Amino acid sequence: MDIRDMTALELGRAIRAGSVGVREAAESYFAAIEAHDALYHCYNTVCKDEALARADEVQKGIAEGRFTGALAGVPIGIKDNICTKGIRTTCSSKILENFVPTYDATVMQRLEKAGMVMLGKLNMDEFAMGSTTETSATGITHNPWDPDRIPGGSSGGAAAAVAARLAPVALGSDTGGSIRQPASFCGVSGLKPTYGAVSRYGLVAYASSLDQIGPLGRNTDDCAALFAVIEGKDPMDGTSADHETFSFDAAAAGEIRGKKIGIPADYLGEGIAPEVKQAVLDAAEVYKALGAEVEIFPMPIVKYAIPAYYIIACAEACSNLSRYDGIKYGYSSPNAESLLETYIRSRSEGFGMEVKRRIMLGNFVLSSGYYDAYYNKALKAKRLISKAMDDAFRRYDMLLGPVAPTAAMKIGESLSDPLKMYLGDIYTVMINIAGVPALAVPCGFTSDGLPLGMQLIGKPYAEAEILAAAKAYQSATDFHKKFPTLQ
Amino acid sequence: MQIDKDLVMYLEKLGRIELSEAQRAATEKDLQDILTYIDTLNELDTDGVEPASHSFPIANVMREDEVTNTARPEAILQNAPNSRDGCFVVPKTVE
Questions:
Q1: Cβ contact (<8 Å) for A348 and B63?
Q2: Are the C-beta atoms of A166 and A31 separated by less than 8 Å?
């Protein structure tokens, strides 16, 4: 079996059994990256020398019994907003194009302990602001299923790399759908964990109350195995939660019989493409056949999720991004004389247009005279959204719905109209506002052969439950086993 | 909410950014579209609702006040665009 055809767990088993070498595994991915990534542009930075040196060290560690985990020796791609010591971390922004972190994010330390090997840093929308990966300053990532289409975003490089088999698994981040929507557009699985389940230490901040790091993989077991490595309380992140340890075995059991699944009616209303709706309803039938109860219920708060999300996210973004001043790190304009000019020119020349737009929107909703009408109003909406989610979870074990209203768009289609791009986030942003976990998995294809995704939304810290539900679905279907033919 | 050029320029000032005339005109239109949509939030009845901050009930997170980090001036200055004698260099701020 070709190394790149193996799931991450299969590859991990082969490495532990000695039938595949750690260096051999990494080399087979680098060969594929060299052959294909000029077209798809999943990677901002490829770390071949570092990875091969690390592979030899891990191989030795496995032999000595230091690395015994399920993913020891398995390569991984990392979204370029996660700090990697000594390796450029750009957030796909000109303002950080030469930024080399002096420390590792907590998730990187966890991967290190697990014996994983980083292949490189993956492209994204600039500062994770966007849903297409087109706002990247390093160029567009192309969807492996159709290079004329976007991969989704903001973790577009991560989803495309997993779909194109240019990485067995990847870490992305999800602030309003940035793991789930590209996973859906690229036909892979992706988990947005509960807020606080994974440490954000070393994740370059976009909107701190919403950001969460999570895994992307070819199936739910790979996501579960990677989540087991990265989750858990971290003293370096005061918002990371002290909760019961995640059980991979419970997730991998794939049990769904007797569970109650709710589908918000407002997730199937106006604006959804008929093929997407049908794919989700077909998935509901699969669940009924597997012994789950499925019911459609009203959730009218859905229509207020996008306005609340963009207010909260932009408010936090404009505050978080005030650190880019052209003095401490990052791009500094050579065209500035005074201190104020240094700030203004460095930021104006360093940030792209979407980032500037969100900084201005954030400053607007926080500014004197508008704070109550916008920011405070959004925080009240947040409370109502959380309450609606709590109410739903009193009746159902989990929720099911589409990830995005359509399949992947053509390149250039949404970039010219920011509002249109924002509206595509309707099914994902509410989950971040409520802080609950959600998992995107493939559930069909359009008549043009583009992947479609659905998401399972769980109670706080119920990652194992939604992973198990998705595993049950993947045991009954084979959408997740399809791969695009690369060019 | 009506957006005009003056408001866009005020927001540029708050964000320490400067747009070209063409970007400014496009931003005026984009912000208008976005805020018109955001204003649908006014339909939501939030009377008597407390604003939420954190998604889950987390009380103050306390720890012992122990020094765990060490001074690493070289690391801190490593990414500085301009540094000298262990300090960041900034343009002259007082005459």
A1: no
A2: no
DSSP characters over A384-422? HHHHHHHHHHHH-SEEEEESSSSSPPBTTTTTT-HHHHH
- Measure CB to CB from residue B41 to each of A353, A360, A378 and give the nearest one: A378
Set of chain A residues whose Cβ sits within 8 Å of the Cβ of B75: 102-103
Tokens of A420: 């249109």
CATH number of B5-43: 1.10.20
Could you state, in order of their start, the residue ranges of all structural domains in chain B?
Answer: 5-43
Which of B19, B27, B41 best probes binding to A when mutated, by most A CB atoms within 10 angstroms? B41
Evaluate the omega torsion of the peptide bond into residue A154 and state whether it is cis, within 30 degrees of 0.
yes
Cβ contacts of A364 on chain B, cutoff 8 Å:
7, 11, 31, 35
Residues listed for chain A: 487
Task: Tell me if A102 and B40 make a contact (CB, 8 A cut-off).
Answer: no
Tens-binned pLDDT, residue by residue, of chain A (487 aa): 899 999 999 999 999 999 999 999 999 999 999 999 999 999 999 999 999 999 999 999 999 999 999 999 999 999 999 999 999 999 999 999 999 999 999 999 999 999 999 999 999 999 999 999 999 999 999 999 999 999 999 999 999 999 999 999 999 999 999 999 999 999 999 999 999 999 999 999 999 999 999 999 999 999 999 999 999 999 999 899 988 889 999 999 999 999 999 999 999 998 999 999 999 999 999 999 999 999 999 999 999 999 999 999 999 999 999 999 999 999 999 999 999 999 999 999 999 999 999 999 999 999 999 999 999 999 999 999 999 999 999 999 999 999 999 999 999 998 778 888 899 999 999 999 999 999 999 999 999 999 999 999 999 999 999 999 999 999 999 999 999 999 8
B-chain residue closest to A379, CA distance: B51
Report the catalytic residues of A.
79, 154, 178
Distance CA A298, CA A382 (A): 18
ipTM of the assembly? Answer: 0.95
**CATH match for A3-262+395-481 among 3.60.10.10, 1.20.1200.10, 3.90.1300.10, 3.40.1190.20:** 3.90.1300.10
Contact B46, A380 (CB under 8 A): yes
